Amino acid sequence: MSQFYNNAIFWVEVDKIKPNPFQPRKEFDEAKLADLARSIRQYGVIQPLTVTRKEVEKDDGGLATEYELIAGERRLRAAKIAGVSSVPVLIRAEFDDDKTKLEIAIIENLQREDLNPVDRAKAFDQLVRQFGFKHVEVAEKIGKSREYVSNSIRLLVLPQAIQDALSEGKINEGHARPLLMLSDRPQEQEVLFREIQLKRLTVRDTESIARRIAYDKVRKKEYLYSPEILDMERELTEALGTRVAIEPKERGGKLSIDFMSEDDLRVLFTALQARLKGGATEESSLRRDEHDPNSSDKTLPSPSDDRSKEEITKDENTFDPNSFSL
């Protein structure tokens, strides 16, 4: 390609610009796109998009010029909404290979903090799997630590439902990391995931519960609890929708049932009362529905991350679910 085109700015019709096939960002906020479109109608596209340019042979033997987006998909989408016919583009010849397209798209989104944790993890994973990057090389590209990259990629081992909640902001990354501890205990992982949403657990609450579960796991392995006791514990956990622990002793034992508030205690009491009478009551079901994230009440805030910025950064760079401190 002629040096004339490289790093030069041109006006290109929006319909001639193909999206970046390696765009790591999957979700675009429609309301924010509409706001940007209104701004573009008034002021135009101020910052040029970054594209590559190539000429392809047409069926009739002629040549056609094609442009592929490298960075600026949000601006391109908003320009289309605004009805703009052409946008300014910066043509970069050196960004013509697939690896660089993905790399630049990731870096742009990270700089703008536009990627949710799951999209970021998938982008890192694609660099590693498809293009052979090592974690430390990805870290150097984005100006983060190797641990930050590794911990991001670990999020992809979470069940899809948890990944979806993380992408949608129903839980945050601080909640997701303790859940990773329980990857080998899917039932308790699911219970804790529900509790985070229904009971609005903070990150500190979530970490505390995860540590306790990890401790119980070690304790039960050490004392070799009978399969019957473990089955009863599991069945009670499923029936009550909260964490239940049975601790047998030389004489008798202890049964523990977790609750987070007085309302939660009333729900558990109603459920237990109904079961003691021989069946679940309709009232118990209705009360549980009040705490269901799929119910009509959509006003509850997302669970909060109650840690300081320094604590969050430290967690992102040091968390290892395989050596979680008890």
Tell me the layout of helices and strands:
Elements: E1 8-13, E2 17-18, H1 30-43, E3 49-57, E4 63-71, H2 73-82, E5 86-91, H3 98-112, H4 117-129, H5 135-142, H6 146-154, H7 160-167, H8 173-180, H9 186-198, H10 203-223, H11 227-240, E6 244-248, E7 253-257, H12 262-276, H13 282-290, H14 309-318
Parallel strand pairs: 2-4, 3-5
Antiparallel strand pairs: 1-5, 3-4, 6-7
Helix pairs in contact: 1-2, 3-4, 4-6, 5-6, 8-10, 12-13
Structure description:
Helices cover 51% and strands 13% of the residues. It is of the alpha/beta class. The protein folds into 2 domains: 8-95, Conserved hypothetical protein from pyrococcus furiosus pfu- 392566-001, ParB domain; 158-323, no CATH class.
Q: Can you give keywords for this protein?
A:
Conserved hypothetical protein from pyrococcus furiosus pfu- 392566-001, ParB domain; five-stranded mixed beta sheet; alpha/beta; 326 residues; 2 domains
Q: What is the structure about, briefly put?
A:
The chain is α/β, with parallel strands linked by helices and 326 residues long.
Q: Please give the largest β-sheet.
A: 5 strands, mixed
β-sheet strand percentage? 5-15%
Q: What would you call the structural class?
A: alpha/beta
Basic shape: elongated
Output the radius of gyration: 26 Å
Structural domains: how many: 2
Which oligomerization state do the chains in this entry correspond to? single chain
Runs in which pLDDT lies below 50 for 5 or more consecutive residues are 280-284
Instruction: Count the DSSP helices.
Output: 14
* Total number of strands: 7
- Please give the alpha-carbon distance between the first and last residues: 59 Å
The average pLDDT score comes to 78
List SSEs in N-to-C order.
EEHEEHEHHHHHHHHHEEHHH
Main-sheet strand order equals 1-5-3-4-2
Proportion of helical residues:
40-55%
